[in-house]
Design brief:
Blueprint (H helix, E strand, L loop, with lengths): L4 H30 L3 H12 L1 H26 L2 H15 L2 H18 L14
């Protein structure tokens, strides 16, 4: 207490309490990571660092997964590529009715294929 000073000792004491309260959850995250939940591990560690970092990481993962899923949908069913392209062109030209019609066709295809939810299944390790 004399070496750190009054304020330094309080900060050190709080740091020790914080470390002890996060030790068990961190061990549980390590187990999850070993079982293949790498995205969950990274998002949770980011959230432990700062809630904004965790939220941003999760948002990025969802956006990335949605992009991959949409790309796979368009590659598996090329007819939707043309519909998507035409809808985007209509949108940029100001033809909102045509764009809405095209996006509704794609939305219907998405509903039929049942888009996967974020973190639905664990990734295999080393991917």
């Amino acid at each position: 207490k004399r070496a750190l000073g009054e304020k330094g000792f309080k900060d050190f004491d709080q740091l020790m309490k914080d470390m002890l309260t996060t030790e068990k959850p961190y061990k549980m995250l390590q187990v999850a990571r070993k079982k293949g939940y790498e995205d969950l591990y990274r998002s949770a560690v980011g959230y432990m660092i700062n809630p904004f970092v965790g939220t941003a990481k999760t948002g990025w993962d969802v956006a990335k997964g949605t992009y991959k899923w949409l790309t796979n949908l368009l590659l598996e069913q090329p007819q939707y590529t043309l519909v998507y392209k035409k809808a985007v062109e209509d949108l940029s030209k100001g033809n909102f009715a045509g764009a809405q019609q095209g996006f509704q066709k794609i939305e219907k295809a998405i509903a039929e294929n049942k888009a996967p939810k974020a973190n639905q299944s664990p990734q295999k390790p080393n991917q």
